[in-house]
Amino acid sequence: MAMRVVALAGNPNVGKTTIFNALTGMRQHVGNWPGVTVEKKEGVFEYNGERFLVVDLPGTYSLTAHSIDELVARNFLLNGKPDVVVNIVDATSILRNLFLTMEIFEMGIKNVVIALNKMDLAEKKGIKIDVKKMGEIMGVPVVPMSAKEGIGLRELKDIIHRVSHGEISPAPIAPRYDPEVEREISHISNILSETELSKRYPLRWLAIKLLQRDDEVMKLVLRYLGEEKLREIMTHIGEAEERYGRAMDLILASQKYEFIDNLMHKFIRYMKSEGPSLTDQLDRLLIHPLYGFMTLALVFYVIFKFVFALGLPLQKILGDAFSSFGTWLAPHISSEVLKGLIVDGIISGVGTVLSFFPLVFLLFLSLSILEDVGYMARVAVLMEKLMRKFGLPGKAIIPLILGLGCNVPAVMATRSLDDEKDRLVAMFINPFIPCSARLSVISFITAAFFTSNHALVAVSIYLIAIVVALLSAKFVSSFLVKVEESPFVIELPEYLIPSWKTVLLHSWERSKEFVKKAGTVILVGSLVIWYLSNYPVPMGEGKSYAERIGMFFEPYMRLMGLDWKAAVSLLFGIIAKENVISTYGILYGSEGALVGVMSTLQAYVLAIVTTLYIPCIATIAAIRMESNWKWAALVTFYMITIASMIGIIIWHVGTALGY
Amino acid sequence: MNMVVPLSSLKPGERGVVVDIRGGPNFRSKLVAVGLTPGVTVQVVESYGYGPIILYVGGTRLAVGKGMASRVFVRKL
Q1: For B63, which of A258, A280, A490 is closest by C-beta distance?
Q2: Which helix (H) or strand (E) covers residue A430, if one does?
Q3: Do B59 and A93 touch (CB under 8 A)?
Q4: CB of A277 within 8 Å of any CB in chain B?
Q5: How do the residues of chain A divide into helix, strand and coil, expressed in percent and rounded to 5?
Q6: Per the CB < 8 Å rule, is A289 touching B23?
Q7: Which of A638, A636, A603 is nearest to A620 (CA)?
Q8: What pLDDT sits at residue A272?
Q9: A388 within domain boundaries
Q10: Boundary residue ending a domain (A102, A130, A164)
């Protein structure tokens, strides 16, 4: 028998992930919903010898067509035919949480179970809930839980099991509106009942969605009813709105909240709360326009140190381990071709992939701690105004800062942004932020070619890169993905101590996913570069494919005062940016010889171009993983263009000024 | 009858009942879904010169951009 499907639905910050992890443990799989970059998590749990497939829907406040997350959740509820829907409700914020519950009930879904989470917290806040009464009134089983403590988990599994077997038949209470609205609903339902739609969708739900002018449902109805009928319905709705003097979606929402409020008072009592909570007191500091920013800077510093001071040495250790393994293995392989392929191609490629693992893991660890503690929402509050100027949301500051260490985890950090378009913009510009590998190129060049003002030269390169990144963000968000100025409303959840199990499990899954998905791209890239530099004749005599490619680009490189050797070096920089200098060294005999053959201006142009010209192969793989090939290719093309333009300008201006 | 004013004009500690939200459907649905809907009582917790305004709505703490808050109208309590 096929596994029964359980969908988890709920608001953000209700502990949905904690419940998902508690249910499924290590038996989970992270992927994307088809066609969009919204994360899809699935897992399996066993109860009474039967296996259940749990699908974690995106956390949303409602089920409109206004955001991809909501649409994904809604479409799964409509078309995915889950056997049981577990609606996770935050006991400390019942009114708002039940709004989503009502949206689910309104879809005509019967097999709903409410997991009433954070019961311990509600108790502390003086909120008394009569769970049995709540179940009777809502018409569905209600399971009280404190998921972080593991309380209520067994009961939840048991209820899921029984509902899926029809031992319990929930009868959810659907919201009722005032007589005038109800008349509109039945009027529209009547018109729709004559179509095929009635077989596939609950008519009442379609009618309510039409009243809200839901884009997707309007498109759907258009297909079945034709333009004329739909226009007729919409005109009718318009007239009703005239009478109310207010948009129908507002009327429906207000009445829905009123309906919930009336229900709630039958099973909930609020005791007197004891003054300002700890969260209020902390927020006075953490979102204060002065102290808030100071704390933010400190938090960023700590994360940066944590991820990179710990991650970069680990990366080096892993990388070195693989190259020693290669060196050890080499004499054991007799065939020269095979030796090259295995040692320089495969082993070093796999080494590169795995060496990113610590960085990615530490990054996700920090991010999920920030998220679970509740601080991420505060970052958004502090940075929103500033970042919006460049077409980015407040939280986008995090990937930008991380980019200074390494762009791979930074690109993956764009996941914490809620909007898909924002994610696309943030990952597009991230590779412009100079990572630590480029810092090594920048500092080598400034030290070797400039007699004084080293710091100033380095800072100028960073400034150019950051300005280019921010202007590009503005450009991309205005023209390429057209980010609409979305209203800034964000929940500031209660500060909580994170559940270590959730945090660790989450970080582990994400990092594993990176190795699996980005691994192939990095490996293939390494093999291609290895081939180009060893065939038909190994590099050094100007006869390898790599060198020929470089010579082909010589005229182009001349435009920015560089030669074909620069082109070859930059080609190797695609594997890792620090290769630029070492490749130059190979081509000229030694790195020190560079000083004799290049002018200061040429060196400066090389540093700038190395900083801006292309994401390294691992970053390209990360971008592809977080979006698609097209986007990764576009970023690459855009960066090459910008880097060449800036290289050419600096070369010509510099020459004209007599440098 | 108390005054109807934009939410953005309330000072910390002041409360009001939402009477209207003026803005497009996307804007409305986003506010409504987090509990900011005509009929509910809101309390301003913090409002600095810089950044969004912090509110309490139905047991939830929300941060709402100043521009958004100026399009939400409340009857002062």
Answers
A1: A490
A2: none
A3: yes
A4: no
A5: 65, 10, 25
A6: no
A7: A636
A8: 67
A9: no
A10: A164
Residues 26..55 of B with a Cβ closer than 8 Å to A: which?
Answer: 26-40, 45-46, 48-52, 54
Q: What is the pLDDT of residues A236-270, one digit of tens each?
A: 999 999 998 888 999 999 999 999 999 999 999 98
Cβ–Cβ contact A62 with B under 8 A: yes
Q: Which of A240, A270, A300 is the last residue of a domain?
A: A270
Question: Which structural domain range is residue B46 located in?
Answer: 4-76
Under a CB-based contact definition with an 8 Å cutoff, are residues A654 and A543 in contact? no
Which of A384, A382, A391, A385 minimizes the C-alpha distance to A471?
A391
Phi, psi values for residue A117, rounded to 5°: -90, 170
Report yes or no: B12 at the A interface, CB cutoff 8 Å.
Answer: no
Q: Does a structural domain hold residue A647?
A: no
- Are the beta carbons of A62 and B29 separated by less than 8 Å? yes
What lies within 8 Å, CB to CB, of A425 at 6+ separation is A391, A392, A396, A473, A476, A477, A480, A481, A483
Q: Which residue stretches of A212-309 are H helix?
A: 215-225, 227-244, 248-264, 278-286, 291-304
Among A74, A96, A259, A270, the residue to mutate for chain B (most B Cβ within 10 A) = A96
Residue-level length of chain B: 77
For residue A280, what pLDDT is reported? 87
**Distance between CA A580 and CA A593 in Å, rounded?**
14
Question: Residues A156, A86: contact at Cβ < 8 Å?
Answer: yes
Length of chain A: 659
The residue of chain A with its CA nearest to that of B63 is A490
Q: Which domain holds residue A101?
A: 4-164
Q: So what's the ipTM on this one?
A: 0.93
> Per the domain annotation, does A653 fall within a domain?
no
Would you say residue A493 lies in a domain?
no
Nearest CB neighbour to A96, from listed B20, B35, B52: B35
Classified as helix, coil or strand, B77 is coil
Nearest-neighbour CA in chain A from B72: distance (Å): 12
Domains contained in chain A, number: 2
**A196 — contact with chain B (CB < 8 Å)?**
no
Q: Tally C-beta pairs within 8 A across A and B.
A: 126
Number of domains in chain B: 1
| Spatial contact of A571 and A558, defined as CB atoms under 8 Å apart | no
Note the pLDDT tens digit of each residue in A577-636.
Answer: 888 888 887 787 777 777 878 899 999 999 999 999 999 999 999 999 888 899 999 999
Of B28, B49, B59, Cβ closest to residue A92: B59
Chain B contact for A653 (CB, 8 A cutoff):
no
Contact A212 B57 (CB under 8 A): no
